[in-house]
Description:
This protein is of the alpha+beta class.
Amino acid sequence: MSEPAKFLNAFAQAISTMGLYKAGHPARQRAIEAAYNQLADLQASVIKPSFTFLGGEVLFGQRTMRELKEWDWGTRLANAGVQRLEFVDDVTRDDLEAFLEEVVAKLNLAQIDTALARPERKTGIKFGAIGVKGMTGLQHREDVALPTATITYTLNDEANAVRWMHDEVQQYGQLPLIEAEAVVRSLSVAMHADSEIVIPLVQLKEFDQYTTTHSLNVSVLAMALAEFIGLGAADVRAFGVAGLLHDLGKVRIPKDILTKPGKLSDSEWEVMRRHPVDGAKIIIQSDRQLDLAAVVAYEHHVMLNGGGYPCMHYERDCHHASKLVHICDVYDALRTNRPYRDAWSAEATLSHIEAKAGTEFDPELVRNFSGMMRKFEGRVAVVDEATSVLTGAAAEPAEPAKSGE
Ligand SMILES: [Fe+2]
Ligand SMILES: [Fe+2]
């Protein structure tokens, strides 16, 4: 990989890490350090290196960087107003960190308190939109919409953050709320990096990572559906957090039950069925503001007709968010390979959900969910967590098997 490409990769890595971890976190320090070192290497060989991000293309100086053809950060940066990036003078580590913070804020990856905005500082970094002049020759290029979603990022950072979050809950019983919200923000950014929505679903590689990938996928699906039915941005995020945390109670389930390859015994099922109550308790004890997530954790296995669990002693209607997450939950569970069965095809899964509309699922939400999945069929991207692959349609496995947990 060329020097400029190495720098841009380290730069993007730093931005996404800074969106996930707060100031002082070692992962964040490491990522900034790495970007700084790459920049120093680059500046050692090129005087005033400059980059342009335009229409999905990345230019280094005047030259198109073909190796970054599929690098989606260029589009994200351009959309956030950073179309041109120039290093005109020596840059200190602090300069770079301040600049990275600004980019993170521009990308809306982290909440910023504008009252505490940094004073203007003079640095060797220039950036911003490109003038109309610079656009000549490029603006007439036709942007042909891709029939399938093609994204080149991984959700590795998000998956790592979720794993870390589950460990924290397991060890200390406390939910790190800021990180949970950062993951949801980051997923939301990934979904909207393109002009049309992308639904990035992580493909499970190792069975014991099920809860991590499943949490990310349910969060993404819940946000997509909430957006599809016209909810506002704040509600969409709240539904995303609820989706991310719906199975949090599973941190209390012993691993051998969670990953058991065969059928669960009655006593094991009993343990499994405790996760909605446990999850709701953990969430409520961690943060009062998260009562929506707590309600969803509690209700996500309750069926429309009152079946499911936990057992309700009197008939009651579940929260709209719980009904929505319930559909997304079953969809992702059935679409995933499990130790005891293969993944279902998208079509079989949707048919199954449609067949249970009115008994297990809310019919109106099912109509919307199916409508959304069929409309955005080509925008569902299967993200391989480990290797950054993706394509539109996932491999379709054969026959449906029995519904899981
Ligand atoms: Fe669950
Ligand atoms: Fe679930």
